[in-house]
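From the thread on structure requests for the teaching lab: each student submitted one protein with a one-line request. Submission from student K.M.:

"Model MarR family transcriptional regulator from Corynebacterium lemuris, tokens only."
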Amino acid sequence: MASTHPEDIAARIRPAMTKLYVMYFRISEQSDLTGPQLSIMARLKDNGPARISQIARAEGIRMPTASNALHQLEQRELVERLRDEQDRRGVRVRLTRLGESELARVGEERTKYLAEMIGTLSEEDLERASDLVDIINKLADSYGADLIDTNAG
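Reply posted by the TA:
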């Protein structure tokens, strides 16, 4: 039986996750939005308007990197800046309607490509993969959750 120690599991799964990640983004390059830009947009959709510093912390990136990504998104009218109602000196960033629409379009496109990858599995492997969905989503939801509450000051 395979080890259930977290480091052993990580060592066994990391190379495959890296390979799948690279392959997934290669076949889903139709969008000219980068992975980090999409992540920021999804965070804004899920959590609402946030300060640039909050976005940077939540994404695990430096302020200049977040600011640059947001500037690029703003140039394309996918996000907009607005005055922080709690602190008039501050600025929050929110997703625009166009941003929501583009995020949905790219999400559907990438779901299609991922489904094509998953569709190559046998029926037995599809059942096993289905059992992993909740675990993968739990990891994704909890990873970095302690870094930020974007609705906080």
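TA comment: The radius of gyration is 18 Å. DSSP finds six helices and three strands in the chain.
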